[in-house]
Amino acid sequence: MAQKIKLSTIADALGVSTATVSLALRDSPLVAGSTREKIKEHAREIGYIYNRRAASLRTSRSGIVGVVVHDIMNPFYAEILRSIEHELDRSRQTFLLSNHYDQLDKQRTFIDTLLQLGADGVIMSPAIDTPASDIIMAEENGLPAVLIARDVDGAHVPVFRGDDAYGTALATNHLISLGHKRIAMVGGTDQTSTGRDRYQGYVNAMEAAGLEVMPSWRVPGPRTKQGGFEAAAQFLALKDKPTAACCWNDLVAIGLMNGIARAGLVPGVDISVTGYDDLEEAQIATPALTTVWNGQREVGRRAASALLDKLNGQTVRLSQELIKPELHVRQSTGRPVERV
Amino acid sequence: MAQKIKLSTIADALGVSTATVSLALRDSPLVAGSTREKIKEHAREIGYIYNRRAASLRTSRSGIVGVVVHDIMNPFYAEILRSIEHELDRSRQTFLLSNHYDQLDKQRTFIDTLLQLGADGVIMSPAIDTPASDIIMAEENGLPAVLIARDVDGAHVPVFRGDDAYGTALATNHLISLGHKRIAMVGGTDQTSTGRDRYQGYVNAMEAAGLEVMPSWRVPGPRTKQGGFEAAAQFLALKDKPTAACCWNDLVAIGLMNGIARAGLVPGVDISVTGYDDLEEAQIATPALTTVWNGQREVGRRAASALLDKLNGQTVRLSQELIKPELHVRQSTGRPVERV
DNA sequence: CTGAAAGCGCTTACAG
DNA sequence: CTGAAAGCGCTTACAG
Asked: Is B264 exposed, middle or buried (0-12, 13-18, 19+ CB in 10 A)?
């Protein structure tokens, strides 16, 4: 490895000061055009590498934004991340990704790392049981936060998410309108705000239609394809045999449909299934999945742009409007068939 | 935000020097046990945050490792990333993830960022057409690299990947042994070493069995579920109607099976399909996918551990043994049925 | 076992 | 338009 090249290397070579070089490289109008070009040219030639640590130590801005979610490999978050990536790329921020897998200590370690690196801000889908104090602590130490998908009571930071109760009500009402009366809710957890909201939407719709809400028709837990697949046996063994499943999300719905197919029944015919999120995969699934569009792109876009606003000192309203979900009807839902 | 707390804040409060505080916080044996405890206790109390930028400026180690792949949301890379994450977490390295989407300039921007941040190393699955000089430049600037999944000629860095030619030969031979004679290869690209190797393995197996390799039976391109789904029409319209498809990867295979099902045929019965990678999803697919285990976990583990070795100054052998793939037979392959 | 001082490579007032 | 100098918050010889 050759001798380290730094600002002063350039300054010495060209007979100017490091201040001038620094300004020139950042296109400051304070530097004469000809000087600037000469400096930039030379820097390129000798392969100068800007030292962001040194700069950041001095300016206390790092150009790093943290993003932490339950699991970046989950397509739901993946779609949000893509739009965050798109938004942040334009403002030349580097983003540090992490999974917390709903482990509070993993999340804390990550926030700590961000603080140590002097990150400019963080976008988070908080782990289950995240106390407001964790977020307040971050903010007090100069790490502004915005939340996505899940809320934290008392955190006093902007949250971007869909109207979950409304969304599951859309799906449930669709099933009811097809004639289903025994509808199960498969997957999800009461431990997140999202989980509670989605279940509530289902309950609301059932009650509004005068249908009975059987506690046993709730199959909590699954949140992945694997989970939905495994839940199929349990669902099919439910007493009073529900004719439809309102699933926690698309992954659970697709897994459940696979499990139902393995049991020799035809999803979309024998059993109606709805998803939630409208992942790209929903259209490819067989049968194509009836689901609720949840505005992932929009969530990511708004969250990133709100964080950038915050970084630029603008105030961001705490109460953000919920994104209105939309029902996308495909082939996985139909009129009920009595099961024997 | 309260007054910034730094080493000297602690030093002043306790009447010791910053040198002592620095050493104590890093558990140096040079500091007396009682002093150390007093310092650590106090630091915790007042909420001291270690400034890694400052430390890294001084030590020129950042604790950051970069990882760049085609697309982190692709389950194939996701599984590799999980094991990298697992491995690096143990050594307390922070890792910066990025997608290059096979765009050379995105990859270059990322490598630049790593250099600027003083990252300790990088694990990459190089973008298509990555010149060896890009990797050499990184190494010369103090950013050691190891490659995963794809090789770059002349880069002279360790590569961790499976034996792709052997793997597709396994799948193809399995189909041949079931009695298939007209086997198509669906998906993949000749632009990566992996793509060329996998196709070669298929060709080798066909030729070894004395079967004709029809150029028209190659359907290049698809690498995702969506791609496989869309390729179904093309596959089904192939002349001489192949009875089996050896797919580029599991995603393509699953997409293709969905497309075949939509066309009214039964995958695994009317058409045999093999995947590659053995993603978690392969078992859940309907029918369960016959596929080639590709050792993702192993690739990630070995790459991370090799990079850590490199960081610690150990020499890492350039020529790494290829990971031996294994065939996992499930329900998506069977004896050929003549199509009308 | 502990402290004083230099230095990592930038940027930013300040002066000219 | 350009330069000299201080300082961001650490760590590391070096001295005691």
From this structure: exposed
> What is the distance in angstroms measured between the alpha-carbon CA of A62 and the sugar C1' of C10?
13
DSSP, res A26:
T
| Residue closest to B255 by CA, chosen among B214, B286, B281, B224 | B224
Q: How far apart are CA A22 and CA A28, in angstroms?
A: 9
Which residue out of B284, B310, B330, B331 would a mutagenesis test of the A interface target, given it has the greatest number of A Cβ atoms within 10 Å? Answer: B284
Residue of A nearest to B81 (CA): A73
Write the pLDDT tens digit of every residue in A118-144. Answer: 999 999 999 999 999 999 999 999 999
> What pLDDT digit, counting tens, does each position of A246-267 carry?
999 999 999 999 999 999 999 9
Query: Token digits for B141?
Result: 């600037």
CB nearest to A50's CB, from B49, B116, B255: B116
Q: Output the distance from B30 CA to C4 C1' rounded to whole Å.
A: 17
Q: What is the mean pLDDT of residues B31-59?
A: 93
Q: Which residue is nearest to nucleotide D6 (CA to C1')?
A: A58
Residue A173 distance to chain B (closest CA, Å): 27
Residues of B with CB under 8 A from a CB of A: 1-2, 47, 49-54, 56-57, 62, 72-73, 75, 78, 81-82, 85, 94, 96-97, 99, 112-113, 115-118, 137, 140-142, 225-226, 229, 255, 258, 261-262, 280-281, 284-286
Residue pair B25/B31 in contact by the 8 Å Cβ criterion:
no
All structural domains of chain A, each given as residue ranges with its CATH number in brackets, are: 7-50 (no CATH), 62-162+296-324 (3.40.50.2300), 164-294 (3.40.50.2300)
